[in-house]
Amino acid sequence: MFDNSQFPKAKKYWLQGKTYEWSHPNVHSMSHALHYGTSVFEGIRAYSTRNGPAVFRLPDHIARFIHSAEILSMKVPYSKEEIIEAIKLVMKENKLDSAYIRPLMYYSYGNLGLVPKFSAVELVIGAWEWGAYLGAKTETGVQVFIVPWKRVHRSQLEMTAKLGGVYVQSAICGMQARSLGYDEAVLLNLEGNIAEGPGENIFIIKDGVLITNDKTESILEGITRASLLEIAKSFEIETRTGVITKEDLFQADEAFFCGTAVEIAPIVGVTDGSNPQEEKKKYVIGSGQVGELSLRIANAYKDAVCGKLKEYEKWLTYVND
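Request: output the structure for the sequence above.
Response:
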């Protein structure tokens, strides 16, 4: 029996065309992905709207999901449309008004050589009710720690894919930051510039300009990130994409994380631990409080995902459509 206390309202999951009770085991312990991280995944959110639950940018997420599978040489067993319908079914089966949705495609049981040539590709989808990833700190601002390990570089691996094995680095860095009393980690790239959080993109605001970096900085160009850039332009907020140095972050007027799980989380303090040979130094971002422009962008994003801004209804897939 599996305790679902960390997965509120999760009653059933979908695997290979069938739904199962949440506590029903289905994955063999010798599955390839369990040993080597040969999996791809997406993090997707659904929100309660006046027209019922709606999944945010679902076709975009599934397009990236399939792209990730292609990077891992997976033969995807379902079409984009079939995966979308399966996600809607999971939402209905669990009677969820809002949810975090996790589709996972993985090399399953077959062989345990490094190359999974005898391991079938399987797809599983779960959904549960999940609040803010960083909890109440999302409202008051988070303290972050720049870890000494550098982000996997774009010259080493295809960074446009969400590969399960790559997130071991994210888990290690996130655990280190929390063990030191911080809310989240920040990773630099091999060039020594700001890359991203373990599972979040980063924006800074300087003199009213909204700035983020791009894929040349060894980041995953997130779907939330792209959404915020579009929302900002519609609000006539100047945006810029380019390199963000450590000093740019330290001297920013405002800064925040963004991503599907974290949504928008203002950063109010940064401690630089990137060089273990040097003393850690702490920096306050702006006033040390959640900034006005960050709050404005966060509120606009919340309205968009909840179907309150007509121009962004194009991003919503209604579960009961």
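The chain has two domains: 12-128, 137-305.
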